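Morning F.,

Quick status update on the modeling queue. The single chain you submitted on Monday has been processed. Sequence for confirmation:
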Amino acid sequence: MLFSSHFIWGFVGTPGVGKTTLGKELASRTEMTYINVGDMAKEGELYEGFDEEYDCPILDEDRVIDELEDKMSEGGVIVDYHGCDFFPERWFHIVFVLRTENSFLYDRLESRGYRGKKLQDNIQCEIFQTLYEEAMLSYREEIVHQLPSNTPEDLERNLDQIMQWIEQWMKDHN
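Structure tokens below.
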């Protein structure tokens, strides 16, 4: 099923909540372009430094915006990144914030090698709904939706629900 080439979705959430799995599956079902901002930044070296405390590069948000601008204006894009506050509001028709219970998230992050402060801060980010609040402050409330992402059954429900939302959006806007 091919959706409007102008439609743009954003997936945000703490690392390990399932953004990539959901985004790639939706891209294959809808024939939209999937963009993982972290991978794009790595390939294009879109960094402005390195954070020693978290042992990770610091994203150069302006360069990321510049890199994405043409793709976003074309539409038909699914964007995956943990944060969203630096993306222009005009880019997204809908923003999905994936949420995972801490017991599931802890195991997922630990299996990725997260330790110490990096592990604790990401768990706290999920507990305090930091990325959901960031999305609510950055975009119109009606386009921001939380989705549970704990089990394979949640993934299937989310896929079904998102496909229904998109089909309704298409009816309403065509």
